[in-house]
Specification:
This protein is of the alpha/beta class. It is built from five helices and five strands, in the order βαβαβαβαβα. The protein has one domain: Response regulator (Rossmann fold, 3-Layer(aba) Sandwich). Helix 2 runs parallel beside helix 3.
Length: 137
């Protein structure tokens, strides 16, 4: 599984990566533009991310703008719904209009900061992901 973590706070990126490392290969970026560039690059190389964890408030491009771009890329490729990237939006803002905008843009889950590892893992499991397994030979 390929995971992209996009957050403007280095400590948050590091903490989420620590929680998610047992689920797949994690890449981290510090702003929305970097997130979109990573997603486009992965798509061009036929290695799309399976899970994207996006902060809503980031420099250069908001998480909502990135989410809309993700869904447009998938729509343009006629990607079936069950094969699209799962997106968890993360923010300190719980206003109903922001939550609604994220849902309308196509997020799969919405989590309020501060992020708690148990909550993130529950959402990841709810989306159908499980820990990666290592084979012992």
């Amino acid at each position: 599984m390929r995971i992209l973590i996009a957050d403007d706070e280095k400590l948050v990126r590091h903490a989420i990566k620590g929680v998610m490392k047992n689920y797949g290969d994690c890449s981290t970026v510090a702003d929305g533009r970097e997130a979109l560039n990573a997603i486009v690059y992965a798509e061009k190389n036929d290695q799309p991310f399976n899970l994207v964890i996006l902060d809503i408030s980031m420099e250069r491009m908001s998480g909502i703008e990135v989410l809309k771009a993700i869904r447009k890329i998938e729509e343009d490729k006629d990607r079936p719904l069950d094969e699209r990237m799962k997106v968890i939006m993360a923010t300190g803002n719980s206003e109903a209009n922001i939550v609604r905008e994220c849902i309308e843009a196509g997020c799969d889950k919405y989590v309020i900061k501060p992020l708690k590892p148990d909550t993130v893992l529950k959402y990841v499991k709810d989306l159908g992901f499980s820990k990666k397994t290592t084979k012992i030979i």
